[in-house]
Amino acid sequence: MKTRFFIHRSLRIVCLLAVVCSLSACVYWMRAYQVYLQMSEFDRYFDVAVSDEFSLNFKEPIMLSEDFVALSKLRASEETVIADGKKWRYWFRKVNGYRKVITPEVKFYSELGFNKENKLTRWAFSSLFLQIAPPKFLEASLRSLGGADINKAEMQLQGNTAAVEKIAADLPKRDAVVAQLGKPFQVIPDKGQEIYVYLFLLDSPHIEKGYEERALSEVKLSFDKKTQELVRMAGRFAGLKISINYRKFLDEPAK
Its domain of life (predicted)? Predict the structure, then answer.
């Protein structure tokens, strides 16, 4: 009986590991999953700082710098060694349909900070990114990941907005956003909205073969035709997909 129980338990463990490892890059995904679990106790494991940029600080770091290369299949634009570790900055530049940088230049960055143990301690976004993802909504979106649904096929998290405290804030207006980002690549009419499409190209010194398309970020901004408010943002940044429906976080959603 003991032997039979041991074999049965061992098979369960092997099957579980097989499922986890089948997600690709087993060890890397397991550490990412641990960070996901931390999200359910957001204030215990994270804090947010907002100045010219938005910073998410990790109180008990887990993910390693190598995890991001393994998962995204590309390198940062700039990798700098600092006194207490290192920082990686990913620069995204606005381009046209031929992937040529548009002038005057429009760009933003996402920055990762690591300690001396190569563990992620800080994730920051520059001020231009905050034009399309205002700090209060960006923080609420991150908080909603606690208990989020996992889409295994797409490797995405769908935030639980019902569990997040609602926000009393104004949504960005179309003219203010366009003043910062400039003319969009494309405008798509969609019922009561207009979707402004912008293209940004990641400046990366190395991209793993077969993953070249990850360098191009197609950012879709949905504006309400009546109010001209930005109601949704969706895009992929260095392999990371972000989608925020701003109305779901509002204290009194617009009608």
Answer: Bacteria
List all residues 6 or more positions away from 108 whose beta carbon is below 8 Å from its beta carbon.
Answer: 91, 92, 125, 126, 127, 128, 129, 200
| Tokens at 97, concatenated | 């349909």
Question: Where along the chain do its domains lie?
Answer: 39-249
Using N-to-C axis directions, what is the helix angle for 26-38 and 2-21, rounded to 10°? 90
Centroid of chain to Cα 89: 14
The answer to whether the beta carbons of residues 198 and 94 sit under 8 Å apart is yes
Q: Which residues contact 114 (CB under 8 A, 6 or more apart)?
A: 64, 65, 85, 86, 87, 88, 120, 121
pLDDT digits (tens, 9 = 90+) for 42-52: 999 999 999 99
Q: Which residues in the chain belong to E strands, given as ranges?
A: 46-50, 54-58, 78-82, 85-94, 107-114, 120-125, 149-151, 156-158, 186-190, 193-203, 216-224, 230-237, 240-245
User: In angstroms, how far is CA 232 from the centroid of its own chain?
Assistant: 14
Report the C-alpha gap between 132 and 138 in whole angstroms: 10
Residue 184's pLDDT is 97
